[in-house]
Each structure stands twice: as structure tokens, then as C-alpha cells.
Predict the structure.
Amino acid sequence: MKSFNPEFSEQLYSSVLPCGIRLAIMPKQDFSRTEIQLAVPFGSLTTRAYKKGSKEPIILPEGMAHFLEHLLFESETLDIPKRFAEVGAVVNAYTTYDKTAYYFQTTSDVIRPLELLIEMVMTAQFSEMAMKKEAAIIEQEMMMYDDDYEQQIYQSLLKQLYSSHPIRHDIAGTIESVEATTYQALMDAYRLFYHPENMVMVVVGNVDASEIQQKVESTFQRYLNRVNDYHHTAVIIDEISKKPSHHIVKKDVAIPMLMMGIRLKLTDTKTLWERAMDDIKMSFLLSGVFGKGGNIYRDLMKRHVINDAFDYFSSYEESYGHLIVFTETKKPSLSKKALIKALEQIKTTLPDEKQFELSKRKLIGEYIQMFDQISQLANQVLDYEMKSISLFDFFKELSALTYDDVLKMRDDILLDSLVSITFSN
Amino acid sequence: MDSILFRSVKKFKSSILTLRVIAPIEKETLNERAIIGPVLAASTKKYHSKSGLSRRLNWLYGTQFSVYTMKIGFQSVISFQFVYPNSAFLPNQESLLEPVVALLHEIIYRPLILDGHFPNTVVNDEVRLLKESLESEYNDKNEYAFQQFRQTMFDGETYSLRTKGDLSTLDRLSSHSLMEYYQEFLKQPMLISLVGDGEEAMIKHIISKYFTLKPLNDRYLWIDTEASLHACPIVKREENHITQSKLFIGYRTQVTFDQPLYLAMQLFNMMLGDSDQSLLFKTVRERDHLCYSIGSTYDSNKGMILISMGVDSTNEQKAIDAVKSVIADMQAGLFEDSWLSIAKSLQTRRIQQRNDSLVSLAHADFYYQIIHDAPFDMDTWIQKNSQITHSDIVYCANQLILDTTYTLAPKEEHHEVV
């Protein structure tokens, strides 16, 4: 299906190919760069998966999706990244909560690296020896994050905010969970998820859409002899605490760090589209309170309870939802009180209607600017395509949002679930 | 040199406008130059507070504004930068160019002044924010280790001065002293560049309505030639509450941006440690499994190559030895031509990709203009890249002089209470 957005002169070709993969192509012929991403819905939150016709879940250990991501670059006989480099492409990958994505960037021919990407993802070639080697590298990756206090405070917060949801765990798992993962378990998970019917591919850049479409279909034909056993995954949604909790952790810091989180109400009946829309509405609501244009932000700054490190964001997904505020502060307990009060104000006072209009104008500008950066655009399109959301239609609905739509979001903020973490000396 | 630079590019949906103010980098004015931009942007006659400015930027369809001070050679450059959507895509096709130029003018020339100086509250607020930002670098252990490395290697040199500011003298700054500096700042050479949508005559007309800019005729020192060579390489190891050792190895080279071998040195650096096809990545990570991240960077305004990585503390020496052996091999010409051709093709792609980013183009245009007196031209640089030979790389490798090895290592006892 081709969709055209005349206002922005952009085209997006999105379809499910006969081989089963969902493919979205946005040609940007004036650009040198092309980025192609290939994703499977296997991320760190994927801890229970069901095969077709089975009621017994397969339990997947922590960090498995990420470990597999590292291992698909390994081969006994081939230097996989070098093969990409030889045809003018740079290959890489990342694992998030809900997916593993493999991608390459190039400014030259895209067809050969496209074949290599599909081949790499569809033919796991790693050995048990490679597992040992990658486990050692992943251990260094984890140690690097251990020394990253912003990452640490975020992880500590999620651990307190959720009682059993897998979001509590690091995407990479733990050193122990990686070491305990067996070759057989990895291959089983690989066979379960890595089938074109479960995959999404996004192509943004200097390409010919029909040529790409044909190449993707013909290349995947080579891998259709495997059976797709995958049915669905499930996350057990945990109970939300009704009692705020505060934690102080001793760390070697020059200025204490404070992070606070609150759970958001989840409604089972919402579609992915509605949730994605809620996510934006929530960010509008928050920008009315914490945005630089608002009185509350100005007041918090004036009282020296926040500084330029101050940040806030919300996440609204199928199995989890929370909002988070962060600051560095020399007065952590005062900052905590002031931020709790500000969070309460979201529910008790009406947000600035004028700011809502301003946020909408800002959103329009940001949407326009999104088309200028190939990689960010590819990430954005991938996120939406994985939820079967059309980028253009979604924006159309966004521009019709009203102040009342945003106000309704206040009911979803569950203040009693508040958790604060302070890193201080 | 003309003080208005314009590059017309049609493929983007936004444009980028930058005002740059140039002065020599000096210890005495580091804090003034670090803070004058944020103070000017914090309150103007029309927008008394940051909230006012933020609302104005939202109104201008989320125009992004940033102000920062950077060092190029012996010069300090303060940039005021706006990225705004182009008129063709906005409701009613309104053009944001003039409102953005007017806002820039408001920030530079119409600060809020009370009793002849900036309001104390505004200056004190910005001093507090800068101070906390400098202090909190200690929280970021990798950044802290890097700053310790810099101070060790460049002690006493201009390069050790930081445009972000100097914590030890920040308290001396007052609203009065900053006001005096503002008068100086207004006399300093200014240049405006625009990359994106528009017609040259119209753009120059609009900018000239608000700004009277003089051509830039002075001689500037864009390359830092100072090098205090140590009698023997420095080795320093400090401890901190961390789990993984942060290792920095600094080399000096006399090849800088203004020299014919600059691009070959850039390519040498790419082969050494600036990609997943680099020899350091292939050796230290993929062969020896000593690290997750390893990389090298080349500062061509100074002539420095810096290798950085995170390793387990028991493997520090192994990692240092591996790095030295990779460099020794390159110095001896022991690398395959296929690696060179891969690095060349990678470098070509990086040059091409500059044309895909507004921010890179805005930077490259200014940079090439001031140093080579011509705007960035992709084809010329790709051509030069293709001519680099094996012996150029060997020559570059032999220009490296090991200067400083700095390690921030975990303390023997690891305290942590969770």
C-alpha cells in the first residue's frame, strides 16, 4: 500500500509481502544515505512466549534477546561485519524492551548489503565457543553501565516501581543469566522468533521502492522452508503499589541525583494506536507542568531545587506505563518535596491552555524536522510499523487533539505508586 | 571574508541559522565567555525570563535554540544556533526566517538591564547552573576520567583551558564584571551563516535589517601549535568508586587540519580505532575480548590522537600492550591493503553523509571557510581521500609520539549500599 502525504511531499510504501514480512519504504532520493532496519518482536520484556497450539509458555531467561543479537554477528568461517564493509555498508544492531533490530547504513549500492543483512539474521552461524567470547564482551558492557549512574538510578527506580514485571531487569540480563544461557535455549528462541512472518523491515533513503520490494521478497524465499511456530508473547502485569516509597542509595557523587517515578493506569481494551496516542497526550500534559515555558518549572528553578540536568518523560505501552522525573540537586529532600507537590498539581490544577496550543505548534515543527534525519526517521517508522500504525494517519489525528483530550489523561496518574531514588554520598 | 555565509539546500524541511562570535581563548575570560550566551538568552527586554523565550520558540513551531562556546585552535567561538521548519510545510506557509533573525537580535542586543548591569538574579542563576554542571561531571565517571586525562597531558598548555568554564574562579564573576565583558563582546567579530531554504538576496536583506556585520579581516589562529613535550611519557593511575577501569592513551602528532597530510591522518585514525573495522576493535575486542567499547579520536586542531576504552582492572596492562602492538604494526607497514581500501570507502561515506545533515553542513561550512577560505566541497575531499596511499598511512603512523597513559581504576574495596 502506498500512502502519500502531499503536505510534506513524502511517500511511505507499507505492505505485507507474500513471504510474510511487513515492509515499509520511505524513499529520500536527495539524500546520500540509506538505512535499512530489520526487526523481530523479541526484546527484554519477552520472557514468556507461546507456540501455536500450546498452552504452556516457554520461559525465556533475562538478557536472551540481547545475547542473541550479539551472536548473530558471529560465524566460524566468515567475518560478517567485514563483508558489509567490503560492499560499502556499516552494520550494527540494538535490543530494546520489545524488539531486536539489525541495521546497516550505506551511501552506495543497497542491494548487496540488503541480501547480507537478511542472510545474517536468517542464518544463525554462531558456535558454543563464540558464546563464551561474546559473554566476556557483554560482561564488559554491563560493567560499563555499572559506572553510569544515570543508567543505574533509572534501573534502580524501575526495580522499585514494578514488583514482578520484566522491565525491572536490565536489557542485557545479568552476568549470571548470560553465563547460564545454553546454546540449545538460544537456538530454540531463535527458531521461534526469527521467521519473516514475525518481522518488520524499514527502508529509508536513496532507494527505488519496487526494486527493494522485489529483492526482499526473493531473498526471503530462501528461508521459507522453516515452520513458524510462534503464536504470541505475554507479560504478566503486576500489581501497582498503593504506598509511596523512598530510597536513598550511597554513591560517590559530587551532586546528589534524584529520580522519581509514578505508575500510569493501564486499560486492557485499548488498541496500540490508542496507547500511542495516550503517550503523546501524556507528554502534552507533562510539558504544561514541567516544560520550560511553565510557571512550575520557573518556580522550581528559582528555588534551586532543580538544575539543567532536570528532565521528565512518560512511557505508555501495552504492559507498562509510568512517568519519570529526574534532577541533580544539592538539596535532595527539598527537591523531593517540591517535585511531589508539582506532580500532585498535575491532578489538582488545570494546566495552562495556552501552553497546550504552544505544545501543539511545537509538535508540528518537530514532525516536519523529523524528515530531515534519515536514522531517526528510520527508528520512528520502525516503532510505528511494529504496531501497524501509519505515520501519516497518526500525525493527522494528533493535529486534531484537543485540550480536553489531554485533560482526561490526569485520571491515569496513580500518585500513590510514587517511588523516589536518591543517589547521594 | 564575508560575514554572512549562505548555502542553499533544497532537500531539507528545515534550515539552520548560526551567529558566531570570535575571540582569542584566554584564561582570564573563560567564565565570561562560557556564561555570556546563557545570560543573554535568559532575559531580554521583550522576554524577561527563560519561560518567555521558551514560549516564543514553541510558538515558532518548535524552533530549536542552543548556545554554546567551543574552542578551535587558539580561538574561542560562541555560537547562537536556531533550527527552524521551512515555510513550505507550515500552515499558511509562514516564513520563520525573519522572526528567528529578530529573536537573535533581541538576544544579542536587547538584554534586560537594571541599574546599568544585568539583573543579579539572572547572573547568579546562570552561575549556579554552570557551577553545578561542572561539579556534576564527577558523577559521570567516564567524563571525569577523561577530564583528569586532559589535565594530565596538557598541563600548562592553552589546550587545557575549557570553554565550558573554570570552576575555581567562577565565584569571582558578578553582574557588573559580566556587563563590562558584554561591552567587549559586542565589539568582537561576528559572522552569521545560514544553511537551508531561501534566496540569497532576500536572506542577506533580512539579516542586514537587524545586524551590521563587518567583514572578517583579522588573522585568527585556528590551529593550536603549542606542544610541551615531556622528557618521557607520563603514566598516571588514580582510583575511584567504579567497577571497570577507564583507560586513556594520548599521542601527539604535528599533522593538523591545515596540512596536506590531514586527511591521511584522519584515515590512519579510522584504520586505528574509529570503526568496527578498525585494528583496535578487531584486536582488543574481537580477538582478545578485553573490552566492549574501544575507540580512537583525532583532534586535528591540536594534533592529538586519543585512544579510550573500558577494561577489567586485571587486564589494564594487557590492553595497553595490545594497543602499542597495533600501533607498532602500523608504523612498520604491517597491514593489508584490503584494510586500507575498506577504511577509504568508509571515509568517503562519512564525507558524503555530511551533506545529509544540516548541523554538519553548518559546522563544515564555517570550518572550511575559516581555515581553507572556501566552503566545504564534498567532491574535492572525496578525490583527496581516494589518492591516499599505504605509505602515507605508514608515514602518519610514525608521526605519533606517545605522551600520556591515564587510568581511572576501581578502588580495592568496592563500597556500595543498595
